Amino acid sequence: MKRVLMRPHGSQRGYMLLLVLVALVAMMISGIALVRSIDTNQLVAGNLASRNSTVHSADLAVQQAVNWIQANATNGVLFADSTANGYYAEEQEPNWTHPNVWSVCTTTTGATPCYTANDGAGNQVSWLIHRMCSIAGAPGTPNQFCSSLNGTASSAGNSYSSDAIIFTGLPKNFYRISIQVTGPRNTTTLTQAFVTL
Question: Mean pLDDT, to the nearest integer, of 30-49?
Fold first, then answer.
């Protein structure tokens, strides 16, 4: 008969148990880090999608503002401020991040052309138009200085190149369209575009 020698319980140290516990803690920390990384990536992707949505809404607002300018280009409305429509006949440099700048469109009662409460993508869109002139008034008003183009390049063959001959024609005023879009994830986009008509 063979004898089996067993160590007494008092001489076992438990190193393996300690090693397994350390490995479990390391695996748990790496698992938590992986979950947090996935959550962060999803938040970043969602924020980028929300920002892109606000940029697309701003593009649509530019077109709406251009349509408003074109609709009022011949009736004299563009010579004076029309704050209810978000239009200013002179150049201004407001603090674009201040809420009062945009309140002209958002606090008026009824439907205003310069504000959309929900554009279908959950965005609130406001636009303001500034004619790039020193003061309000019709062309030829004393002390009136406007950023404008002379001539009509598309119909008279003029060129707007710096060294080209400029033929006489009707001046075209510049208009700055500023758009603020606020998205559902507190994403705010400020976009500006210059047009001439």
Answer: 78
- Distance of alpha carbon 151 from alpha carbon 171, whole angstroms: 6
Nearest-Å Rg of the Cα atoms of the chain is 32
Q: Can you give the pLDDT at residue 182? A: 85
Nearest to 129 by CA among 170, 97, 92: 92
Confidence of residue 153 (pLDDT cuts 50, 70, 90): very low
State the CB neighbour count (10 A cutoff) for residue 141.
14
Delimit the domains of the chain by residue range. Answer: 48-196
d(CA 66, CA 194): 10
Q: Is 122 exposed, middle or buried (0-12, 13-18, 19+ CB in 10 A)?
A: middle
Tracing tokens 């008969």 back to the chain, one arrives at: 1
Do 192 and 179 contact (CB within 8 A), yes or no?
A: yes
| Residues in Cβ contact with 166 at an 8 Å cutoff, skipping those fewer than 6 apart | 150, 151, 158
Q: Express each pLDDT in 48-66 by its tens digit.
A: 777 777 788 888 888 888 9
Q: Are the C-beta atoms of residues 155 and 139 closer than 8 Å to each other? A: no
pLDDT mean across residues, the chain? 78
Instruction: Give the pTM.
Output: 0.67
**What b/e sequence results for 15-40 when a residue is b if at least 16 CB atoms lie within 10 Å of its CB, and e otherwise?**
eeeeeeeeeeeeeeeeeeeeeeeeee
